[in-house]
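worker-03 picked up job from queue 'complexes'. Input manifest follows; four sequence lines, order preserved.
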Amino acid sequence: MSLAHAVLTSLLEKPSSGYDLARRFDKSIGYFWHATHQQIYRELARMEAAGWIESSIPADAGKTRKKEYRVLAAGRKELARWAEQSSPPMDLRDEFMVKLRADAVLSEVNLRPELARHLALHRDKLAQYQTIETRDFPADRTLSRHAQIQHMILKKGILYEQNSIAWTLEMLDVLAQLAAPKGSSTP
Amino acid sequence: MSLAHAVLTSLLEKPSSGYDLARRFDKSIGYFWHATHQQIYRELARMEAAGWIESSIPADAGKTRKKEYRVLAAGRKELARWAEQSSPPMDLRDEFMVKLRADAVLSEVNLRPELARHLALHRDKLAQYQTIETRDFPADRTLSRHAQIQHMILKKGILYEQNSIAWTLEMLDVLAQLAAPKGSSTP
DNA sequence: TGCTCCATGTAACACGTTACATGATTGC
DNA sequence: GCAATCATGTAACGTGTTACATGGAGCA
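worker-03 finished. Artifact:
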């Protein structure tokens, strides 16, 4: 389990409401660990019951139901314990590879539109990441420990997208060759 | 849902028992879609109930409980339908990035042993992939459509591992710098 | 008035993981 | 005879997804 720990990390960076957390999970942390608001509320309830976090009504709540969560000592300790524990490296789980394999055996599926769509999405995401990079991490050497680590996390995302783009282009090329090989009529 | 479709693909490539499928999911397809034998048996039961596959006792069963599954026309149709459907690109879900972020905010975790461990695992996997590549895909141009697609799937894995290795090395370097900056005593 | 956004939640279900159970076959 | 491997399954639980519900605040 690891969503709880992602939430703890996020709360340590900045005490927040469940709603705010859910939105932050669509950015920063969410690039590597997505979660819906329902999952987040469920985890917050559990962690409060476990004594890892506590909630209070913030000053700017007004008449809303807004709550703000803070990490307690027990939560911080749990996060440190978990972080030092070893865990298997991420496993790929790429639906598109299954589709490709299905196409390889069926030979009757046209995956090119989907590939083109993914290509555009990867390029968008890469552009986003690069914008963040030039804005937040200008000249490495002067950056704090915290910022240097954040930068490396972002770089991982950038590498991944660049990778995906390169591979997708090659794949499109292969499919184009297969669809219209030299000197043949339509397949 | 996509495990069912991964299983269908695997069965089209070669009709098999649940046990054989489970083992194949630790190789080839499993590089991009892992599943335990319990999941596979559950899916096989569902798909048989849905009329996508059928089972029979194979000639070499002897007194064992062995069953062999084959894909029916309905299953093949379902796989083609699913494969043409668009789906979001794979999302990263990397526990280690959460740990890094936790370290960035806690500053009291030593992630270097874990990074070194992952580095070794990535190198192993890359070596495995490259062995398969030189064995199965020698001189692209003469390969069948099926083999060319399989090769591209393998290449995706190779790129991913190379990427991970490069990033991990850089990360180790950053952590080493942070632990022992120029002109300082032990931290 | 009705729309969108803020904010929190319940319920049901699908998928993934772990532990356990059972029994036959193969090899030492 | 005993251990490992083949082969299939049940049960319980944890996590992730989807749909729905509720109600206040701000705005046209």
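worker-03 released lock.
Residues 17-20, 22, 37-38, 41-42, 45, 64-67 of chain B lie near DNA strand D (CB under 10 Å from a C1').
The domain at 3-84 of chain B is CATH 1.10.10.10 (Arc Repressor Mutant, subunit A).
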